[in-house]
Amino acid sequence: MDNLLKEVNLDFKFTAYKALAASKNDGILEFVEGSTTIQKVQQENNRDLYAFLTGLSSEPDRRTEILQTYLKSCAGYAVATYLLAIGDRHLENLMVTDNGNMFHLDFGFILGKNPPNKDRWVPPIRLNKSMVLGMGGQKSDGYEEFKAKTIDAFLYLRNFRHYIMNILILMVDS
């Protein structure tokens, strides 16, 4: 998805990291330097992700860049988690780097599969209040830009639905 979007100058700041499956239930992930869970950020910043992001730099231009990176990565992952129907999203499965890149980990529940007793009400878009507050809140310009970027990504990627489905079908037995 990242490469398809970059072909048309839509960079959603995806964070690629290596993963190695050791068995059906175990694996090893590459360490992403300068990253922490959204849960830890909230615990250490009075539940204020926006304050954390703006506190990463005292330079106004750099601060704007960090917020833009966060916004773009949230939009990209919102579309990716929707298209791949990724489940079990919580604040310990969401990471943020000191550059503002937000990314997901732990993809044990994918393609509509959810943890036991947690599939009663699962939103199609994996976006929580903490993530929205990191953009400035629901009434902010950042949130409006997030929605516009999410729509742009989805509209472009739906042209490749057969390509994406074929890749997923090839991975069924892996």
> In the residues, how many domains can be counted?
1
Main sheet properties: 3 strands, antiparallel
Number of strands: 5
Class inferred from helices and paired strands: mainly alpha
- Rg, rounded, reads 16 Å
- What name is given to the CATH topology? Phosphatidylinositol 3-kinase Catalytic Subunit, Chain A, Domain 5
List SSEs in N-to-C order.
Answer: HEEEHHHEEHHH
Span from first to last CA? 19 Å
**Shape type:** globular
CATH architecture: Orthogonal Bundle
Number of helices: 7
Low-pLDDT sequence parts: none
> How do the strands of the widest beta sheet line up side by side?
3-4-5
CATH class category name: Mainly Alpha
Q: Considering the protein shown, what is the CATH homologous superfamily? A: Phosphatidylinositol 3-/4-kinase, catalytic domain
Helical amount: 40-55%
Description:
The chain is globular, with a radius of gyration of 16 Å. Helices cover 43% and strands 9% of the residues. The chain has helices at 2-6, 38-44, 49-54, 60-83, 129-134, 141-157, 161-170, and strands at residues 19-21, 27-29, 35-37, 94-97, 102-104. The chain is mainly alpha-helical and 174 residues long. Helix 4 packs across helix 6. The protein has a single domain (2-170), classed as Orthogonal Bundle (Phosphatidylinositol 3-kinase Catalytic Subunit, Chain A, Domain 5), CATH 1.10.1070.11. A 3-stranded antiparallel sheet has the order 3-4-5. Strand 4 and strand 5 (102-104) form a beta hairpin.
